[in-house]
């Protein structure tokens, strides 16, 4: 192999690596990011220590929907919670059952234990531009009922898409 040909090959490899790094940076910065689940508030859907990939661009073109698992940015830390109530809706929990606008709402994602330990709350009407979120492990979750309050759309930095670690737990989170 001639010296010129070898030099051209190194330049091509360098270009490919540089493009890959730039693409990875752009994807990580503007489209996808990762987060580590801390604590058991989303159990059984998400476990403590799992790493999730979240979509950062989805809410630039759409609004959060009921059931979305979202990443909420607060100055002290990020939280992973499920959107339960939308702007203008009235939320109430009676006898461990969720009512949205006085209609019973089935929560198929909850464990039987969580269904029986949700307690009572409300009724409360969600202000416009705000969301009501809860963790799936209702008895221990810090959420809109007891500390986080209503969530603004600006605080929602992405929607959880799937667990990528540990590898044996890989699955969609929605």
Automatic annotation (TrEMBL):
**The protein's Enzyme Commission number:** 3.4.21.89
- Enumerate the subcellular locations listed in this protein's record, separating them with semicolons: Cell membrane; Membrane
Any one GO BP annotation for this protein: signal peptide processing
InterPro entries listed in its UniProt record: LexA/Signal_pep-like_sf, Pept_S26A_signal_pept_1, Pept_S26A_signal_pept_1_CS, Pept_S26A_signal_pept_1_Lys-AS, Pept_S26A_signal_pept_1_Ser-AS, Peptidase_S26
The GO cellular component terms are:
plasma membrane
- Domain Peptidase S26: residue ranges: 10-165
Record membrane topology? Single-pass type II membrane protein
User: Which reaction is catalysed here?
Assistant: Cleavage of hydrophobic, N-terminal signal or leader sequences from secreted and periplasmic proteins
Q: Which residues form the active site?
A: 41, 81
**What GO molecular-function term can you cite, just one?**
signal peptidase activity
Claim: Protease is one of the keywords in the record: yes
Q: Which UniProt keywords apply?
A: Cell membrane, Hydrolase, Membrane, Protease, Transmembrane, Transmembrane helix
Q: Where are the transmembrane segments?
A: 16-37
Kindly give the Gene3D superfamilies that the UniProt entry links to this protein: Umud Fragment, subunit A
Q: Which family does it belong to?
A: Belongs to the peptidase S26 family.
Please give the PANTHER family that the UniProt record associates with this protein.
CHLOROPLAST PROCESSING PEPTIDASE (PTHR43390:SF1), SIGNAL PEPTIDASE I (PTHR43390)
Q: What is the name of this protein?
A: Signal peptidase I
Mind giving the lineage of the organism this protein is from?
A: Bacteria, Bacillati, Bacillota, Bacilli, Bacillales
